[in-house]
Amino acid sequence: MTYSALQRRDIRLLAGLRAVSFLGDSVAMTALYLRLAPLGHAWAIAALSIAGTLPLVLFAPLAGSLVDRVPAKRLLTLLGVAEGVVCVAIGYWHGLYATIGLMLALSSFVAFSYPGYSALVPSIAGEENIAASQGTMQAVQGAASVLGPVIGGVLVGSVGQSWPLYLDALSYVVAAVATTMLRHDRRPSPRSTIELAQSHTMLAGVSFLWNDRLLRPIVLTTLVFLLAINVVNVGEVFFVTVTLHSSAIYYGLVGASFGVGSVAGSLLAGRLGQGLVNLARSILVTITVVGVMIGLVGLVSRVAFIYPLMAVAGVAAGVANVAFFTLCTVRSPEALRGRVFAAIGAIFTGDQIGATATGGMVLALVSPRTVFQVGGVAATLCALVLGPVALRASRQAHAREDDQGA
């Protein structure tokens, strides 16, 4: 890791502002679920979840295209202010339809800020520090996912349902102000960069991922793997509370053990080498570990045995996340990174939506324990069957780079 003093300052500032935003979002979502739960309508919770994710799929082409054409700091600052205003409105209006509609508006802005910040990170860190910077960003996101539900629940119980949303609004505004303080910016200023950005359509991110002979098998392997794991996530609460007869507290600790592990794994992965073969191998090995751990969870008879298994799975998932995003960044032309990250967000968000629907149908047919067992086996087989193709592609890509450099 060879950060300059200015790079180190901006990476720390960016990590801090993203941590504040992620934590605010996690707190707010917890408050909103608690707001709608007393209504007794499962469709309302589902609608809120869809409103919070669907725009990331629908607006991905436009978002990525805009990110690749506009200076990052200006765009992200305006988006932060807009997101803060919407959060204030969600906190003020508590009606069901107002909540869902405003959540749809908020996630529409997030659909633009996500690829914007993702593309800004390597511009600050430099090409040689992508793994280290990704490790830091994934770690703060993991920490927020652990702390957010706890803080959100405490705030709702102590100060009501509006203040978590007002605090989330404040987090967006603070992030917007902090963004203006960054010394680095991502500007599409060089003529070659502008020409490359303008020569591709809004779907260039998806096309690039599909046409790249290394990223295509990696993305497909990861997509199938996440489908299996996300189906398991749907059954997790039933497995812990119904099958193992444990309380909500124990269920919360299961998620916390995975989250803490993912933070540790992300920080550990910051030391990864950025060679193509090394990154591809890291992804395949770690998703295999996750699959094995999930399958073993399906065999336990007491909830206490789940915690170490989920912690190990979390460490492996943290490494896999960092390795995956590092590989995608290294392989992507700088001028296309906004569209590439938007495409990645859309693909995996769509995968999550599909897995949630599939999980509900699967649970109607088999027990939660069986879901864990089958999901773990499916995730492991995914890596073992599709992985060799991806590894072979990484070696071929590495060989081509060596030939070009010779």
Strand count: 0
Overall mean pLDDT stands at 90
Helix content: over 70%
CATH superfamily of the largest domain: MFS general substrate transporter like domains
**Beginning-to-end CA distance, first to last residue:** 26 Å
CATH architecture of the largest domain: Up-down Bundle
Sequence of secondary-structure elements? HHHHHHHHHHHHHHH
Percent range for β-strand residues: under 5%
Figure out the total of helices.
Answer: 15
Classification by helices and strands: mainly alpha
Overall geometry comes to globular
Q: Summarize the biggest pleated sheet.
A: none
Describe this structure in words.
The structure is a single chain. The protein is 83% helix and 0% strand. With 406 residues, it is an all-alpha fold. The protein folds into two domains: 1-187, Up-down Bundle (Growth Hormone, Chain: A); 202-406, MFS general substrate transporter like domains (Growth Hormone, Chain: A, Up-down Bundle), CATH 1.20.1250. Helix 1 (5-36) runs parallel beside helix 6, helix 2 packs parallel to helix 5 and helix 3 packs parallel to helix 5 (96-125). The longest helix has 38 residues, at 368-405. The two termini are 26 Å apart. The mean pLDDT is 90.
